[in-house]
Amino acid sequence: xxxxxxxxxxxxxxxxxxxxxxxxxxxxxxxxxxxxxxxxxxxxxxxxxxxxxxxxxxxxxxxxxxxxxxxxxxxxxxxxxxxxxxxxxxxxxxxxxxxxxxxxxxxxxxxxxxxxxxxxxxxxxxxxxxxxxxxxxxxxxxxxxxxxxxxxxxxxxxxxxxxxxxxxxxxxxxxxxxxxxxxxxxxxxxxxxxxxxxxxxxxxxxxxxxxxxxxxxxxxxxxxxxxxxxxxxxxxxxxxxxxxxxxxxxxxxxxxxxxxxxxxxxxxxxxxxxxxxxxxxxxxxxxxxxxxxxxxxxxxxxxxxxxxxxxxxxxxx
Amino acid sequence: xxxxxxxxxxxxxxxxxxxxxxxxxxxxxxxxxxxxxxxxxxxxxxxxxxxxxxxxxxxxxxxxxxxxxxxxxxxxxxxxxxxxxxxxxxxxxxxxxxxxxxxxxxxxxxxxxxxxxxxxxxxxxxxxxxxxxxxxxxxxxxxxxxxxxxxxxxxxxxxxxxxxxxxxxxxxxxxxxxxxxxxxxxxxxxxxxxxxxxxxxxxxxxxxxxxxxxxxxxxxxxxxxxxxxxxxxxxxxxxxxxxxxxxxxxxxxxxxxxxxx
Lengths: 317, 261
Hints:
The complex is a heterodimer. Chain A has two domains: about 180 residues, Rossmann fold; about 120 residues, Rossmann fold (3-Layer(aba) Sandwich). Helix content of chain A is about 30%, strand content about 25%. Chain A contains nine helices and 17 strands. Chain A has a nine-stranded mixed sheet with strand order 9-8-7-10-6-1-4-5-11. Chain A has a five-stranded parallel sheet with strand order 14-13-15-16-17. In chain A, strands 2-3 form a two-stranded antiparallel ribbon. The radius of gyration of chain A is 21 Å and the shape is elongated. Chain B is of the alpha/beta class. Chain B has one domain: Rossmann fold (3-Layer(aba) Sandwich), CATH 3.40.50.620. In chain B, a hairpin with a 2-residue loop joins β10 and β11. At the A-B interface, α4, α5, β7, β9 and β12 of A face α3, α4, β9, β11 and β14 of B. β12 of chain A pairs antiparallel with β11 of chain B.
């Protein structure tokens, strides 16, 4: 049976839930080997946190270069493992770091690359949603080892426990991959909410909030949701740019997207229209976003959201 | 310093895009300079201005490098009108349908020929949206990769470039020595509008056109192929209610009914 590599995804020393999604997709193609790249001395702890999904084997490489030299060091080791194992495919989480690792790895391995896949089939065909989700594309890598980045939250993961055998590989990051140096790293300020692109539910605010995100945040917290914002809201300085959903911000496809006071320019739609369910709250009955809403409330978000927040709390209690 | 800025001409991001035979239909839409590349041009100009300028007699040059069809000269001309010195456009029929790997190979070859110390890109193009070309360039050039920069500091004397990298994973401080490949995020600056003087001056600036043979790269085409592309059915609008004082409660009922809470 063929072998599939997944590059294990970590936030700090904790494996993310994206790993089970990558493993689930990988297991359709072959036996999944997870590549764990950890700081010196921490390989066992990192590997132990990777405990969900159909992972057959874990290979660990320890080096402080992964943190100190970033993308180039990770791609260096991943390419060495690909060269040694000739996998049928390599799956990587599709965020900024993962896409850059995929980019450099593809160059090193003379391999084709597909980014932002929302699904991968047994014959290594990737499904992508392009042009703001308006078109579904199926594509295949035609040269070398397929290197595919998969968007978090896109694949229904098998989250059964895994008890994969762990093997440590003695590989060295080459000096050519140490040209950029990271001197400090700060994790994003999260305020206890889930990460925007990984969240099952996203509640976003726009121009209609007039800069007051309290009602949006209150509703988000009642749902355990991430908070997003339209470009109008981030450009006005009402919410940080890192929370912007849209063509020039994050692309999200949660189970539920709640847009509050957002009219729905193409710019915004491009970042959220692949959400499974869409709820819109807006005073303006003509807001274009109502056209794609599964449920719309024409009303003042400052009245509707607090009532809904109480309703959700009552439902959950 | 010799500064290169990589730019791409893309379909206007407000235009409706279609696939024809597995590639983006670029013929029948308005084409513009990729929005996100304007930040790269602006940053290159600001860096040049902070270290002796790029006017005649200045100590820096800012060269725009692009790959695309003949009509990409329009996008390149816009970057020149903002204040870049000159431009190189690689245009060759063999490059139609080129993927990011082929694009990065061509751009890297041009950059290597020109011996640029600092290469600046936008983070992604608004059409393909892969965000991979800057990392591929760094790999191909053996240059330090300093990408997703929200701040760039250059010290030409020590050849050191420092950036603040901002991604969903957090904020990193990074640095490297020339040659470096930098990509800049859109909040880094406010791109200038070309002045009338700038637009007039740009008409006289040189856009050197090169084909693949001149660049010394063989056409690779694409190493990933589209099997099919289907427009998704438009989402049907669902239930719309007007808030009569129970809008929030009705919303919760909808969420409960759909098992979303």
